[in-house]
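Hey,
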Amino acid sequence: MKPFIIAFFLTLIFCCSNLFAQQEVKETYVDKVNDFMILYPDDWSLEQGQEGEITLYSPFAEEINNDLNNEEELDSELENTPILEEKIQITPSRWDDGSLEEFVEANFFSVDWSELFSGFTIVKEGKEKINGNEAIWFVSKYNVGESSAISLFYFIKMFNKVISFTSFCKEEDFELDYKIKYLEIIRSTMSYLETERANKNK
């Protein structure tokens, strides 16, 4: 075999081994009451709230928050500046009657978002299937203080529940740091009971 072919195969093997070594380790969050589970990077932190709501924070967001908390002296201008926490909130809701479109109409379009966020605008919207479940999504832009921000809103219908996702991110960080991670978490959403049944039938 010619030397350059050998070198090519050795390079290919080396690159593939690095790729597998760099694959992210995932944690699994399971909510048996609301029958859903998600996967998220193991270096992200998870905070549980009331009625099944959870919030995920990336390590990068934690570092920024820690730096702000460790400041001993903040001038008055900084104290009055709103801080955008880059995170993703996940909320399960009971929805026995009606379609996913009706849920979105009652729980998303009924909110006057411009009162909550300056310059709130929906820039994209669509539908997709996530692990066989119907989903509706929106991408919005708005302002927090002097920062331009982007949020993803996803609504996934699972039996008599709707799992809602809302992400928060500075526009400058969205494409490079957060978009892929947020979508990986959202698109990992599965029914816990269906997953258990499938594993038993293997």
